[in-house]
Amino acid sequence: MINNIEVKASMCLNCKNKPCSKKGCPLNNDIPSFISAIKEGDYKKAYDILCETTVLPAICGRICPHYKQCMGSCVRGIKGDPVNIGDLEAFVGDIAIKEGYKIEKIIKQSKNVAIIGGGPAGLTAAAFLARTGNSVTIYEKYNYLGGLLIHGIPEFRLPREIIKKSIDKILELGIDVKYNQELGRNLDLKELEKKYDNIILAFGANISSKINIEGESLKGVFGANELLEYNNHPNYEGKIVVVNGGGNVAMDAARTIKRLGAKKVIVVYRRAREQMPAEQKEIEDAINEDVEFLFQHNIKKIVGEKHVQTIEVIKTELIEKQGETRPIPVEIENSNYFMNVDYIVMAIGSRPADFIKNIGLELNEKGYIKVDKNGLTSNPEIYAIGDLSGNISTIAWAAKSGREVAKQIDLT
To answer: By CB neighbour count within 10 A (0-12 exposed, 13-18 middle, 19+ buried), where does 356 fall?
Structure first.
C-alpha cells in the first residue's frame, strides 16, 4: 500500500502556482507540500500540513468530487492522468488515525462558543475554535455526530469506522458534546445566547426540494434526503423505482435502492450525462451496479389514484444560451410518453426546515439564513454555516465555511 502511495506521490510536479490548491480545492489545502512530505516518507509532517486547513482528510480524500476540484485543476491532467490527490489525502488521514497523530493546539483565545449541529461544517468549526483555546460545546439532535456524513452518504462510499475515528480525533481537542438536543424542541436559542459569547448554527438544510408537478403528493413519492437520513425505505423487492435528479444524492439514492432489491432503478435527468453535477466516478459506479439512466428527459406528471402508477415524461433538447454556464434543457413538443413505475424519489436539491422561519433571524430570498461575507447573521452574536446559509453543497465547502467562521470569531 505504502509503495503504491509513494508511486502516486511521485507523479506530483510540485507546481509553484499550485492550481490544485488555489483554484481546485475549496479548502485551499497545500497539496504540493503535503505530497512532498509523503515523498520524504514523513507522514506526520504531511498530516500537520493538511491540518493547517482541514480536519477531515480521511473523509474528504474519499468523497470529495476530486475531478471537479483539485484533480480537475492538476497540471498533469492537461495531457494525461492527474495526480490522484484524493487517494493521497485519504492515505494521510488513515495513517493519522492508525498512528494516533494529534491535531496540534495553538492556544490563543478564551471565548465560550456553542455550535448547533455536528456535521462537517460544525465539526470543522469546533476543531478550529478548540485548537486556539476556545471553550466549545456542540449541541446535536441525534445521539451521534457526523450529520450528513452518517445519514447522507451510504456506508459503501464512506465507512462508518472512518467517520467515527475522524470525529474522535476532533473531540480530543477538548470539545464538549450534548446529544439529543434539537433547536425548537428542547433547545432554545434565546437561552443559549445568555450562556455563550457566540453561537454557530450548523444543522444543515436537508429537506428535499419539490418540482411542484401534478401527483407529487401521491403515496410512493419520496424525498431522497429523507430516505437516506432516516433509512425508512419501503419494500423495493421486484419494484421499478425512478430517481429524479443528477447529483451525488441521486447517485447515492439510486445505488442504495438497487442494493435493497429493486427490480429496476432508473435515473431521470433533464440534461446530458456530461452536464450532471454528480462525480463521474459515482455515475460509473451506478452504471456498474445496473442503475439505468434516462438523459434529456423531464417528469411532467405523476399519475395514480392514491399511489403512484405511472409517470408522464417528456424529452428535452439542449440549447446554448448566453450567460449560462450549461446548456438549457427545452422540452420537445409531442415527445411525451408514459412509464409504469412503483416509486419515485426526488433528488433535485434541498432546503432548510420550516422552523427556521421562527427563530428570529433574517432569511434570504431563497429561504436560507441570510449571512454576510463573514457568515454573520442578522444577530451580531450568531453565525450560520454550511448548507443552512445556502453554501455550496459539498463536504469541503461546508468544512471551509466552518473553518472561516472559526477564524472570524477568533478575530473579534
So the answer is: buried
